[in-house]
Amino acid sequence: MPTKQVFLLGCVLSLFATTTFAADWLQFRGSDNSSVAASAKVPVDFTAEKNVAWKSPLVGKGVSGPIVVGKKVFVTASSGPVVQDRLHVLCFDTDSGKQLWHRQFWATGRCFHHPTSANAAPTPASDGERVFAFFSSNDLICLDLDGNLQWYRGLGYDFPKAGNDVGMSSSPVVAGGAVVVQIENQGDSFAAGLDTLTGETLWRETRKASANWASPALLRDATGKEVVLLQSPGVLTAHEPRSGKQVWKYDAQCSIIPSATAAQDRVFLPAKGLTLLEATATTTSPTVAWESNRLAPGNSSPVIVGDHVYILSKAGVLACGDCKTGEILWQQRLAGTFWATPVVAGEHLYCINQDGKCFAVKLGAEKPEDPPTSELGEQVLGSPAVSSDGLFIRTGQNLWKIAAK
């Protein structure tokens, strides 16, 4: 099919909303990058036996989080005796935990990564009809929901200098008929948008050659218009997802692990601790509402619920801040080191440390009592997913569904 026809087909299809369920968790931090499932009902306490709907074993290794589309949950993994050059995409039934299919591929790019990480570090994404599995080797695989290969892009093969020995972990986002990847490193550093239907490169922008593990985020306005936020060590830029056109930028020394979170016309940016920007999808120049060095996130991204922002520090201290002023309302010390971004289910914030201990913290302006704690006894590095009545957690060995029985 000629390129012009492919482009027109993509534009026509983008006019029609993909059928998705309200309970879908389509990408890292949820369908809208908020980490919030306000109507979900998940137990606040569980063990390896209590309130476990099912547990399914996983192959290889991975620190990516699961995503949920309809009645299917997807997760990636990587394996190999020397380097993790074998790429896995797995699909499970959300109700039973039965493995529905398992696809395997060979990596084309650099597979080096930190011993605590894996080639399967980025969380996959979906548009409701396809799954986009991205890996540290910069291989991007598109499958339909039944596991049939739609296209494959070896971006590490195309750009062999893109990567570092610690590994990449930026997760893709899907918007406007494009899957956007952020591949920032000390070598060939860039961001790109690829057509969701064909895998063709729609745009590619050179970024500063510097290590960065932050993921793209989405900013939507009241009309549904959206831009992709690209957070780099020295700047935050907003782009039209399909054309890559830069809409606005904000110069700042941004964090390189926790990612920006957008809520309504506000962007909570991990910079100078935490910076609140007032901006929309059509803003030409964002406005700084406040900055707070006391609300500095550690490895986890900010979570916004109503007028409150929740931050987990590197020391494992959870802080609740006022979104209007940046004032800290309360702080609570939790135990351990946290890599997973907390998720909201109903009235609780679920914070899971790397040892698999979960703290279910009651939301609100008043400091809660000591939260209920749960332990799975397995390492957790990837951010969980929430869908309807279930909390989906990826550990080092298994995929778990936590749900009331």
TrEMBL record:
The species this protein was found in: Anatilimnocola aggregata
Annotated signal sequence range: 1-22
Keywords per UniProt: Signal
Record keyword Nucleotidyltransferase present: no
Span of domain Pyrrolo-quinoline quinone repeat: 49-187, 287-360
Highest classification ranks of the organism: Bacteria, Pseudomonadati, Planctomycetota, Planctomycetia, Pirellulales
Pfam family, one: PQQ_2
Domain of life, source organism: Bacteria
Alphabetical list of SMART domains matching this protein: PQQ
Protein name: Outer membrane biogenesis protein BamB
